Amino acid sequence: MNLRSIDLNLLVVLDALLDEAHVSRAAARLNLSQPATSSALDRCRHLFDDPLLERGKGGMRLTPKAEALRDPLKVLLAGIAAVVDAPEEPLSEIRRTVRIVTADHPGIVIAGPLHRALARTAPGIDLVIQPWHGAPAALESLARGASDIVLSVFPTIDEAAFHRETLLEEHYVVAMRKGHPAVEGFCLDRWLAYPHVLVSGRGDTRSDLDDRLAALGRARRIGIVVPSFLMVPPLLEDGDLIAMTPSHCLPPDAGDRFHLLPPPIPVPGFPLHLAWHRRRDRDRAVQHVAGELRAIFVGLS
């Protein structure tokens, strides 16, 4: 039997017909017309290759096959109802692992607060923080089901397949050690007079900033390329290196440890996005973790 050809509504009508053993009463129970109910009975007879209801003394009676169908049919319909109308599982009873793809920042920002929030609200949800290898790889991981949530920047996205929302609007700051010689009279020339730190997980030696400088006929020297923002603060404290970083990629005490200045040329910021695959739209655990992430970033903005 091809299950795709079966109309579940037909089984609901059959259940009423087997209970009532009467077309008119079954029609009234289901708020259907008598012709529509009779038509459904004919389709059921064809589906099960059996009369199901036969005329007998005093009215209609169930055939042996119809009698055999009654209990399994009720179990089947009850199971379908339980799936469709399943009560929402209490957060305290959920046992799940939610996998989040993120770079080291904002990963280092969210890991502790998110773990503490889940310990209070959903202690059975465990976390796996997965490494970020670029936005395309992150979306592919969501599509494969290897990840549940991504924190990243997605300039474009297939909105039919993925949910995307903005958690915060990030901006850049220039950071250097206290007492750095570039601070006094800080300007483009003084900014470019010292070597810069560039963060690139792929080992790139240029960024969009270098293209902007080139358009002005200027260039900077990249003194060191590192794969993680976590490596930037110690490098700045030990010498005259300068870094331009997203503001939330610096440690909370950065204002006490470094000079923080706006870039001397306009540098647009970017949105940090929260994304998941549409099949997770009704996933209780994933949606709860997403809500806790929103709350964390509200506190940061």
UniProtKB/TrEMBL annotation:
Keywords: DNA-binding, Nodulation, Transcription, Transcription regulation. The keyword Transmembrane helix does not apply. InterPro entries: LysR-type_TF (IPR050389), LysR_HTH_N (IPR000847), LysR_subst-bd (IPR005119), WH-like_DNA-bd_sf (IPR036388), WH_DNA-bd_sf (IPR036390), YidZ_PBP2 (IPR037402). Belongs to the LysR transcriptional regulatory family. Signal peptide: none annotated. PROSITE patterns: HTH_LYSR. GO terms for molecular function: DNA binding; DNA-binding transcription factor activity. The keyword Transcription regulation applies. It comes from the Bacteria. Pfam families: HTH_1, LysR_substrate. This is DNA-binding transcriptional LysR family regulator. Residues 6-63 form the HTH lysR-type domain.
